[in-house]
What does this fold into?
Amino acid sequence: MTQAPDPAPLSPAEGQMIGWRDEQGDTHRGSLFAAFAALAGGQAWSFPALRPHQREPWHAFTVQVAALALTHAGTDTFPATEAAWRDLLLALTPDQPEAWDLVVDDWSKPALLQPPTVQPTDRAAYKNRIPTPDALDMLVTAKNHDLKQERMVAASDEDWLFALVTLQTTEGFLGAGNYGISRMNGGFASRMSLGIRPTGGAARAFRRDVERLVADARARPDRRTGTMLLWTVPWDGTLSLDYGKLDELYVEICRRIRLRRSGDAIEALAAGSKCARVAASDLKGNTRDPWAPMKADGSTSHTPTGAGFGYRQMATLLDAKKITLPHLAKPDPADDREGLAIVAAALVRGQGKTEGLHRRTIRTPGALRDADGRRLPLDRIGEVAGKRAEEGFQASRRLSRALISLVQGGPDKARLDDDGAKKKIERWMNRFNEAVDGIFFNAPFWEEVAATDDNHRMAWRETLRDLAGDIFDIAAEAAPGTEVRRVPARARAGSLLHYEMKKWVEEAEHGE
It folds into this structure.
């Protein structure tokens, strides 16, 4: 009797390849379509196989695909079943059902996030073999120290899927033939995300963002439509797509990648390109990305720095004079009154390096409404944040002068241009700024946002004065030198700090 051949491995679109946890922590597995159903139905609390830097790309990918599918289908109703999501997503690629499969042997057809070839001979250009998903989606790190390279030798299909999503939707320029995405300001910039999210699991954030995007599409009959999923278009690396012919929510790719099975494992093959996939360099990131903050003058998208999202950076992001908020960072009438957060995230890229994965979640307990329950624009939050950040800067200047005086031995007049002294006090200034950052968005901040009647300016200055005093005392104890020198230096520098802070706090006696 002839033995039947083993069935071909199932793709994420067909098999039990993607794992998620529910709110109780139980693990479930299913197809790509089942994962969408779990997100839509509130069952997917988290995806345990996601690496930290893949979290935002996966959220953006699922939200964009779902919003495109619902808009294309002309419905606002979230399907509840895997089968219904299969039908909805396949309707986006009616003549290319394989576009949702992770591995497709026929390279003239698309695979998930992998464009088809134009000619059979194009396959010869795919010479770069990538054995593991962490090599495909590899952070640029120093000498293999920060994150070990090519460790995922027993990778699963979902590992490859998450790596593909991150590479194709967030990567920048990395040498000749390796162009980056269109949704950021230049090849060495970063695709950052700024949005309002319900606190809780992935499903709540997914549903909120999809609903807002679908509603926005319905409200704008002049919305630009066109190609939605760029991996469905053949590409030989020589031609760019016209940005004006893409749907506003297009899900892009930036690299020529194809996956293939090698025994029981998957490996990737990559080819270079002579141009970027989307001809949009002149736009400088102004591509209607629903998570991307823009400079207020509309010139470019905002590119975060390696400083991350400290209180000063967040104050800038929320300042309407400097930044235009993306659609999904704006409060909506349908948002819950409680349980919201402002989330900023980015994997900050540099020229040939990575400058850190940064994420800041600021809970806004009831604070998106004023004392009478009316909704507040984020402009109000930005206004308060800007004022408080400036106060933090002024306090740090006064502390800096006192610390410089301390390390110089308490002279009658400190030399503020002393680079050596500045270097010595750096760790204490960092400690002060970290302390300010830790309390910046605390309850008094939101009370000021809601415009209660207290003298918020004076209370904040008093808090900063006390923090500065604590840091000064710690620095004074650790300052080098004999006790004979340390005591008078501490006294003179401490008197300087006390005098400047006392005068500064008193200036706010009557509030604004």
User: Anything to note?
Assistant: The longest strand covers residues 340-350. The first helix runs from residue 32 to 41. The chain is about 35% helix and 15% strand.
